[in-house]
């Protein structure tokens, strides 16, 4: 049965509990899609205050001008559409990749790392326009609500946060479309049916989850993937790519210096062509449930392998192993939304200190879904061929190993004697 709401009726008692005038001005994170367009109209009805929209270009590959036009159509006077691609890669993606961050050993955190930047810019706009509240379109089941709101409060502790999905009763796509129709909100035709899955995209990755992907036993159909060809359909000839690093960050591809966003874009092209970066993962959400996500991170997968490759030459064993021990904690902080927390910043300082000598070039072989390191060189290399050669050398006395082994075996021998082994 279709529900029909009057002004303020879409919220769970919101007309009674919210004092009109309590919020004077709102900044809404606005994509122009069905959800945030309905949220915009709902905010106008319930809160009866000025709404400012903010749309971030993070390299999602969509034309953003329609979002501006739709906001204008819905009566918004202050509209921000910001190109944040370079800042996203330089100040968020690259620092995370210096840490080699993988959540639960597999996920390169493409959605997670975008949220603190969106929240940061939203708070900046709120201060600029004198807004006292911010709004996101994340649902009450997922991780994004946590990521957005932890970032908001870390940057503006007194800000009012409004989360419509936790307040209204528009809990299905049918009711959202009905609400949009009654309020003459334009909806793309492909949004009028049940979407096969939900998509989130930026320059680092694209993710799909929900609907057709909810059964973790069922293999995703090929139409789920949009950034990578199937590895089986990738070129039959491998392609080699070289990535240059300076202080832990990639600075060039195949000898051509590129800006952070341009570099990641180039690696995305190469990875997508060779079917690299697909991941089908059941992960543990911060809110407590497990979810199944299908991810494509072609350029990030190449970059992760390349960074590990250059570190293998330039990092001392103790430094590398300590980084590997701390990495899961770092990745968990990013996944859970604690980008602006002091512990993440402390870990970042340690990671960045380790990257001072991480410089050089890595050569990778791209073939049928794999990115393999096949060469690496650095002016700061700790690799000594003179020490590791199997031929005769003048720098290593093999007799030294006997004392080294006996000292390390001493405690094991004492335990064995005590226990009568």
Report on the structure:
The chain has 3 domains: 14-84 and 112-194, HUPs (Rossmann fold), CATH 3.40.50; 199-377, Argininosuccinate synthetase, chain A, domain 2; 386-418. The strands form 3 sheets. It has a 5-stranded parallel sheet with strand order 3-2-1-4-5, with helices on both faces. A 5-stranded antiparallel sheet has the order 10-9-8-13-14, with helices on one face. The chain is elongated. Residues 1-19 have low confidence and may be disordered. By secondary structure, the chain is of the alpha/beta class. It has 13 helices and 14 strands. The chain has helices at residues 14-17, 34-47, 65-73, 85-98, 115-129, 144-155, 173-182, 260-273, 298-314, 317-336, 342-354, 385-388, 400-418; strands at residues 25-29, 50-57, 78-83, 133-135, 160-162, 198-201, 206-209, 239-246, 249-253, 256-257, 278-284, 290-296, 360-367, 370-377. Helices cover 39% and strands 19% of the residues.
Gist of the model:
The chain has 421 residues and is of the alpha/beta class.
Distinctive features:
Rossmann fold; five-stranded parallel β-sheet; five-stranded antiparallel β-sheet; 13 helices; 421 residues; disordered N terminus; Argininosuccinate synthetase, chain A, domain 2; alpha/beta; 19% strand
């Amino acid at each position: 049965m279709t529900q029909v709401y009057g002004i303020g009726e879409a919220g769970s008692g919101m007309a009674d509990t919210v004092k009109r005038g309590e919020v004077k001005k709102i900044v809404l994170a606005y994509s122009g899609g069905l959800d945030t367009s309905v949220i915009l109209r709902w905010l106008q009805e319930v809160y009866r205050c000025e709404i400012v929209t903010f749309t971030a270009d993070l390299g999602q590959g969509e034309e953003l001008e329609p979002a501006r036009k739709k906001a204008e159509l819905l009566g918004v006077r202050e509209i921000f559409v910001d190109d944040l691609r370079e800042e996203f890669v330089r100040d968020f993606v690259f620092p995370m990749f210096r840490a080699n961050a993988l959540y639960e050993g597999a996920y390169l955190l493409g959605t997670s790392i975008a949220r603190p930047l969106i929240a940061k810019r939203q708070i900046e706009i709120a201060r600029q326009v004198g807004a006292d509240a911010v709004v996101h379109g994340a649902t009450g089941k997922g991780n994004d609500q946590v990521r957005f709101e932890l970032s908001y409060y870390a940057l503006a502790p007194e800000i009012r946060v409004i989360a419509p999905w936790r307040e209204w009763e528009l809990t299905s796509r049918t009711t959202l479309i009905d609400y949009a129709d009654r309020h003459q909100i334009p909806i793309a035709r492909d949004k009028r049916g049940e979407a096969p899955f939900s998509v989130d995209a930026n320059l680092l990755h694209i993710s799909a989850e929900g609907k057709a992907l909810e059964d973790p036993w069922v293999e995703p159909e090929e139409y789920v993937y949009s950034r990578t060809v199937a590895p089986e359909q990738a070129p039959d000839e491998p392609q080699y790519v070289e990535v240059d690093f300076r202080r832990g960050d990639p600075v060039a591809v195949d000898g051509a210096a590129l800006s952070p966003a341009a570099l990641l874009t180039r690696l995305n092209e190469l990875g997508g062509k060779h079917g690299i970066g697909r991941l089908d993962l059941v992960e543990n959400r911060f809110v407590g449930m497990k979810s199944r996500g299908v991810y494509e991170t072609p350029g990030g997968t190449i970059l992760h392998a390349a960074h590990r490759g250059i570190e293998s030459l330039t990092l001392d064993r103790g430094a590398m192993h300590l980084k590997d021990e701390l990495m899961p904690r770092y990745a968990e902080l990013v996944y859970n939304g604690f980008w602006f927390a002091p512990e993440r910043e402390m870990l970042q300082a340690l990671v960045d200190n380790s990257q001072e000598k991480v410089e050089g070039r890595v050569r990778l072989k791209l073939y049928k879904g794999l990115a393999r390191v096949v060469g690496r060189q650095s002016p700061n290399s700790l690799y000594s061929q003179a020490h590791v050669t199997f031929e005769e050398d003048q720098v290593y006395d093999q007799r030294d190993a006997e004392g080294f082994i006996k000292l390390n075996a001493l405690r094991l021998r004492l335990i064995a004697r005590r226990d009568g082994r």
